[in-house]
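Re: beginner question about structure tokens

> Can someone show what the tokenized structure looks like for a real chain? I only ever see the sequence side.

Sure, here's an example I had lying around. Input first:
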Amino acid sequence: MTLHTEPASADEARFARVFGNLHAIVRYAAYRGSRDPEGIAAEVMTLAWRKLPELPADDPRPWLYVTARNLVMAERRRTRRQVTLEPDHAERHVTAVADTGDPAVTAALLDLNPVDREVLLLVAWDDLTPSEAASVLGISAVAFRVRLHRARRRFGRALEAHTNGNDHAHPVGLESA
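And the corresponding structure tokens:
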């Protein structure tokens, strides 16, 4: 018995390429402290399917990350309204967001303000170019590069403080350019 399958439509083929970013979006939502990163990623993909003609054809990742970021922020607002935070919840949330497996690197990331941390994570963990990351944050590429330069410098100082000046290799993507 021969199965006859029709070729996927152009939209389905395009969405298949978009869907290839699912795990990156789950990781993005998890690192940003989402209580349901899989749910956030599923909603991002649902919105991507509905708005497929609006997605950039060359690289949809910035659009996907902006959407995920907005959904994570909306989740945080809902959570704040629904639940009274226990005293150490906020600290656990930030630690989960910045847990690198290296105590000195994690401590250095936790020392940074949330804007610096987000700038570094977009480039180092989410593997976005500065132009793509700027689009995620809604700022110009030049402004992003300035923020990235400053964040890397602050990160380097924080890392040095946590390693007591010992030679500690900078994690890939977090080092100065």
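Each token stands for a local structural state, so reading them left to right follows the chain. The first helix runs from residue 10 to 19.
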